[in-house]
Specification:
Blueprint lengths: L6 H78 L30 H8 L3 E2 H5 L12 E2 L1 H17 L6 E2 L27 E5 L16 H9 L5 E5 L24 E7 L2 H8 L11 H7 L12
Antiparallel strand pairs: 1-2, 3-4, 4-6, 5-6
Helix pairs in contact: 1-6
């Protein structure tokens, strides 16, 4: 005989079923939450990994762009040099292997030129006084002569100096020279002077004195301005102290690494904007001002500095 269901038993059974259903629902919900949580963790990991990869890619792209830019600037320098190289027919005879490089030519104790080169080079230059009204501080130096491209940029640089230094102006104290001088370490003999290039001028603001002496550098705001700004106009400090090699009282030292042998705070040489920028910012010299010799060797425009080789 089947037991008779009582009201009490029905209530107990109903409560049991309710607890069972609730418990089952809780378990299912917990599984769902845990599953979602795991998915979120994995998703977060994936997102993080993707972000890292994306950042790495962006860094690589940035580095690649920087390298590409550096290569483009160096190529720009070389192209700029090629475009302004003195045409073969116009290169004066008696030069050295670098004189065909135009505004990047080297003339120093190793890269020498003869009197024929010097005389012919003089005929290729413009008169700064007549063309631009540039004043030569010492009349005994004669007419200030310079390459036409360099002359135009020198004029713009002089105007910028006067604009930033009201009441002041720059003068030349010798540009092209057809001769050298024999006064020891402080001078360059005929055939070895950077002044023979036709791209160089000694510059000074005579309001601060008229003596070319490196001991007076700190009292010459003009030379300090030139050091900081000349590259914007394609000019460089041709003989920075870092590349002098030794004191001016010691024997001339022009080595295979790029030492110039000189220190002159007034001597400015035109090389064009791309090269001037890289030299002034020390692209190939750890961020420090470079020498023209070292720079040309680093970009492959000359193969050897001592002895001379292109």
């Amino acid at each position: 005989m089947k037991p008779k269901a009582t009201k009490k038993n029905v209530i107990i059974l109903s409560m049991t079923l309710t607890v069972f259903v609730v418990a089952t629902a809780v378990v299912l919900i917990l599984k769902m939450v845990n599953g979602k949580s795991g998915e979120n963790v994995e998703s977060a990991k994936d997102t993080s990994a993707e972000q890292v990869d994306e950042n790495d890619n962006e860094t690589e792209e940035a580095n690649s762009e920087a390298e590409k830019h550096n290569e483009e600037v160096s190529e720009e320098v070389k192209q700029d040099a090629k475009e302004t190289v003195v045409p073969t027919a116009a290169v004066p005879t008696g030069g050295n292997c670098s004189t065909a490089l135009g505004k990047l030519m080297l003339i120093n104790a190793n890269f020498t030129v003869d009197n024929t080169f010097i005389a012919n080079r003089r005929n290729q230059l413009v008169d700064l006084a007549t063309t631009y009204g540039v004043r030569e501080a010492n009349s005994w130096n004669g007419t200030p002569l310079l390459d036409s491209e360099a002359a135009a940029q020198l004029y713009e640089m002089m105007r910028a100096y006067s604009a930033e230094n009201q009441g002041h102006s720059l003068s030349t104290m010798s540009c092209f020279r057809s001769y050298g001088t024999s006064c020891g370490r402080l001078c360059a003999a005929t055939g070895t002077s950077d002044h023979h290039t036709g791209y160089t001028c000694d510059l000074i603001d005579t309001d601060y004195g008229s003596t070319l002496d490196t001991d007076y550098y700190n009292s010459h705001p003009d030379w300090q301005w030139l050091k900081a700004n000349s590259y914007k106009y394609g000019f460089i400090d041709r003989y920075p102290i870092e590349w002098a090699g030794s004191s001016m009282s010691e024997p001339l030292n022009v080595d295979a690494n790029g030492t110039t042998g000189y220190y002159e705070t007034w001597h400015y040489r035109y090389v064009g904007n791309p090269a001037a920028t890289e030299i002034a910012q020390g692209k190939y010299n750890g961020g420090r001002y470079d020498s023209l010799e070292h720079y040309l060797k680093m970009i492959g425009m000359v193969k050897s500095l001592n002895p001379a080789g292109c």
